[in-house]
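stage 2 :: seqdesign
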């Protein structure tokens, strides 16, 4: 196969065989983490030492047909989403986003106005988080690809990683769950309404400020929900070496989700538990914490042997999005 070098492959099969998270383990296992790295690969963002402080840095790539479709979303909404998913990773470290660097790839026949509208959408969402675009690159490609690197400022705080949860802590969430998944289901069936869930899929609105607030309130770990609540809690549970139980009765299922699910013959609780792309923030706090405004308790941290459960039982079904699956 083109480009395949069996001597160097180190791992057999295709990336689909290895899996998204297996591939991350493979590539990070071969990398040397440089001196001055405070938080290396494995969290929502890295934290590196700079001469005058610590910098939070993270990248997410969005690919046409995988993360968005131009017949589903306006170019501005695509740009908004590309910025939001990265800004949310900075917020999930308890940091304030400051700047974005943008890689933009598209075919030769793309309208220039599409490219500028994507950029405008990114700038507008960055501004909502207090950040702006400071550089980038534009190149030719077979489809639209947007790669964003976001930089954040901890303002002297310690980063809130995925690894600080301990048994007895409470699990809390801020932001929407299941809305973008409902929107995806609607769009996937060729509908364009209700616009509330559809716009949640097109242009998510993560609660950036809540990341800083959680850090100041003593959050012990945090992650943003990109792949699905249960899938992302699994990452947090593995990093912290704990178990987590979610109480389904504490998860509010908005009337809108119930209505959309009814119309599509879907289960709204499945969207809430496993839907990604709303970029809600999930954090753990010591049990005595008065949760900050907007945060609600949804579960508890347990000993590691139980894994991630819902009402004490393992979840029956996919827990979230995984590339190549
Ligand atoms: N090619 C890579 N090389 C080094 N580290 C990587 C690579 N790909 C991913 N990682 C690291 O693996 C960890 C998990 O990545 P992942 O993309 O799942 O996190 P995320 O960006 O928070 O989630 P999502 O992409 O679903 O929004 C991150 O710390 C990321 O930096
Ligand atoms: C056209 C189209 N098809 C499917 C989806 C669903 N989807 C794509 S990536 C992802 C998880 C987050 O991505 P990542 O892990 O890369 O951050 C999800 C839920 C979509 N948004 N658009
Ligand atoms: Mg993340
Ligand atoms: Mg990522
Ligand atoms: Mg993901």
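stage 2 :: out
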């Amino acid at each position: 196969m083109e480009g395949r070098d069996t001597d160097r492959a180190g791992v057999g099969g295709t990336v689909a065989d290895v899996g998204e998270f297996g591939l991350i383990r493979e590539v990070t296992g071969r990398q040397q983490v440089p001196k001055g790295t405070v938080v290396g690969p494995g969290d929502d963002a890295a934290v590196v030492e700079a001469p005058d402080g610590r910098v939070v840095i993270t990248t997410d790539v969005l690919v046409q047909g995988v993360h968005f479709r131009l017949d589903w979303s306006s170019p501005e909404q695509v740009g908004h989403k590309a910025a939001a998913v990265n800004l949310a990773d900075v917020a999930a470290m308890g940091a304030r986003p400051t700047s974005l660097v943008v890689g933009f790839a598209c075919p030769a026949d793309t309208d220039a106005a599409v490219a500028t509208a994507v950029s405008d959408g990114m700038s507008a969402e960055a501004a909502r988080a207090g950040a702006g675009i400071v550089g980038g690159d534009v190149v030719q490609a077979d489809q639209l690809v947007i790669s964003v690197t976001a930089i954040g400022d901890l303002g002297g705080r310690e980063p809130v990683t995925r690894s600080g949860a301990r048994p007895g802590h409470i699990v809390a969430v801020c932001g929407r769950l299941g809305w973008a998944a409902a929107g995806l289901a609607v769009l996937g069936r060729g509908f364009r309404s209700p616009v509330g869930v559809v716009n949640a899929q097109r242009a998510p609105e993560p609660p950036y400020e809540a990341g800083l607030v959680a850090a100041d309130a003593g959050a012990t770990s945090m992650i943003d929900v990109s792949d699905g609540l249960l899938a992302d809690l699994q990452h947090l549970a593995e990093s912290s070496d704990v178990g987590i139980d979610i109480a389904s009765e504490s998860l509010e299922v908005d009337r809108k989700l119930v209505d959309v699910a009814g119309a599509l013959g879907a289960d709204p609780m499945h969207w809430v538990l496993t839907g990604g792309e709303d970029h809600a923030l999930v954090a753990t706090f010591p049990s005595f914490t008065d949760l900050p405004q907007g945060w609600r308790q949804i579960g508890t941290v347990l000993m590691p042997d139980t894994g991630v459960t819902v009402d004490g039982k393992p979840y029956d079904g996919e827990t979230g999005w995984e590339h190549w699956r």
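stage 3 :: structure notes
- The chain has eleven helices and 13 strands.
- The two ends are 21 Å apart (CA to CA).
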